[in-house]
Amino acid sequence: KFLSNSFRMVDLSMSFLKLIVISNRTKFSSEKRFNAGLSIIELKNKLELITGALTPNMELQILDENEKLVCNLNDDGAFLSSYPIMDGMYLNVLDKAYRSDLEESEPVEHFAISDESYSKRDDTVRSFLQKNRFGKYNEEAMAAKQKELEAQLEAEKVYASKLMVGNRCKVTVKDQPNKIGSIQFIGVVSFKPGVWVGVQYDEPVGKNDGSVEGKRYFTCPPKYGAFVKPTSVEMGDFPEEDLQMDEDEF
Fold first, then answer.
1. How far is CA 47 from its chain centroid?
2. Mean pLDDT on 226-236
3. For the purposes of burial, counting CB atoms within 10 Å of the CB of 180, is it exposed (0-12), middle (13-18) or buried (19 or more)?
4. Contact yes or no for 17/87 (Cβ under 8 A)
5. How many Cβ atoms sit within 10 Å of the Cβ of residue 144?
6. Is the entire prediction scored with pTM above 0.85?
7. Which PANTHER family does this UniProt record tie to the protein (predicted)?
8. Are 90 and 69 in contact (CB under 8 A)?
9. CATH homologous superfamily, domain 162-235
10. Which of 63, 97, 141, 164 has its CA at a distance of 20 to 30 angstroms from the CA of residue 204?
11. Which DSSP letter does residue 122 get?
């Protein structure tokens, strides 16, 4: 098991829920954080990338530490926070279309439908999203989000323009102890959008060696490197000091 014998009850006003995602498609599990304000249909869309199951084929269940059923997430329009969920519970993703290797050995007749025909149906996930203006079908929300992202990127560029590679710095992340190091990289990266600052810490309290997902941005010893947002970096003549591990860096 991946959990302790006790759960922490989540205040539904909190932003995120920590759940263990399991599925009949795989033997593996993973702990993920989900925004409690997500609708179930939005949650299913995110789970497509995690499990490989398609949204229309999903049935979602919440299980306790003994994998006993707590509830079914069967209302696509309901919010995740409206269900009796606690941190550390299992989110079981059942793919109704999935067949095991043994089952796949049997002949299966596959059903195919053209995109044009699919668009004309009113009982599909796409139709549901369009009618309820979820996700990309809410043009106003998408436009507002795009403007917010653009404004954030411009702010990051302004902060980044005041930083210089090679200078000493202090990294401040909310609810985490400060860290001291030197700036080794400033720019865009392939693993996250926006502008990032690569820092080599004075102590092995980082996340990497200056490379992420096989791409190198700078070089430092393992666990001494980290990437943080420009707004978290302050240049100055900072002395070395012992710091603690930060769980919110990449």
1. 10
2. 94
3. buried
4. yes
5. 11
6. no
7. DYNACTIN 1-RELATED MICROTUBULE-BINDING (PTHR18916), TUBULIN-FOLDING COFACTOR B (PTHR18916:SF85)
8. no
9. CAP Gly-rich-like domain (2.30.30.190)
10. 164
11. S
**Given 3.90.700.10, 3.10.20.90, 1.20.1530.20, 3.10.129.10, which CATH number is that of 16-95?**
3.10.20.90
- Block residue for tokens 């070089």: 219
What's the number of CA atoms in the CB half-sphere (13 Å) around residue 150? 6
User: How far is the C-alpha of 63 from the C-alpha of 88, rounded, in Å?
Assistant: 10
Opening angle at CA 76, ends 74 and 77, nearest 5: 125
Residue 43 has a CB neighbour count (10 Å cut-off) of 21
Is 90 exposed, middle or buried, given 0-12, 13-18 or 19+ CB atoms closer than 10 A? buried
- How far CA 78 is from CA of 36, 129, 180, 230, in Å, comes to 11, 13, 45, 37
- pLDDT 10s digits, 103-151: 444 555 556 777 777 777 777 766 776 667 665 667 777 777 788 878 8
Of 191, 195, 193, 221, nearest in space to 208 by CA:
221
Which sequence spans correspond to the domains of the chain?
A: 16-95, 162-235
* 175 neighbors 244 (Cβ within 8 angstroms): no
Other C-beta atoms within 10 Å of 200: how many? 20
When comparing pLDDT for 2 and 175, which is higher?
175
Rounded to 5 degrees, what are φ and ψ at 43?
A: -60, -45
Q: Is the pLDDT of residue 7 over 50?
A: no
* Mean pLDDT score of the chain: 82
Angle at 182 between CA 178 and CA 187, to 5 degrees: 100
